[in-house]
Amino acid sequence: MPVAVETLSFPLSPSTADELARIYGDSPEFADSSEALAVLARAVEAGSTLYAGVFNSRHIAAVLVGGEGETRYMRYLCVHGATRGRGVAERLVAEVRRLEGAQGAEWLEAHFNLEQPGIAEMLLALGFIPHGEGHCRCRLSPA
Question: Which pTM does this prediction carry?
């Protein structure tokens, strides 16, 4: 499944907002999709980047990346339920790693609830190594 990656800015178009609401609709990190959109909007306004995975002109995944300097912080990775298990997260994160590395970042840290079923395994499969309490990290450029 080919996934293009784009950055989103707020305010979102109605169709993009609807697609993001569907992506985050069952995310355990938010009470509901409207809370997710509000949190993402505030983060983007504060300088974070919201990356979205696109397939067939539809947004099917998203992840928020923030931070400055050599370390960036990834949160709220979510893939639409209908496209889970097809490598979408892998493709999205690979492109985010490339884009953030091109902007000078050396590390990408994943801040997730590692107690959630499947999260730690997914991050390990994506090349992240446990690092400290509650997060994993991966190097973006050769040592």
Answer: 0.90
How far does CA 118 lie from the centroid of its chain? 16
**Residue 107's Cα: distance from chain center in Å?**
15
Is the predicted pLDDT of residue 143 greater than 50, yes or no?
A: no
68 is written with which tokens? 């400055």
Over residues 65-93, the pLDDT tens digits come to 999 889 999 999 999 988 888 999 999 99
118: region left, alpha or beta (phi > 0 left; psi from -120 to 50 alpha)? left
State whether the Cα torsion 137-71-37-92 is positive or negative: negative
CA angle at residue 90 from 87 to 95, to 5 degrees? 130
How far apart are the C-alpha atoms of 17 and 122, rounded to whole Å?
26
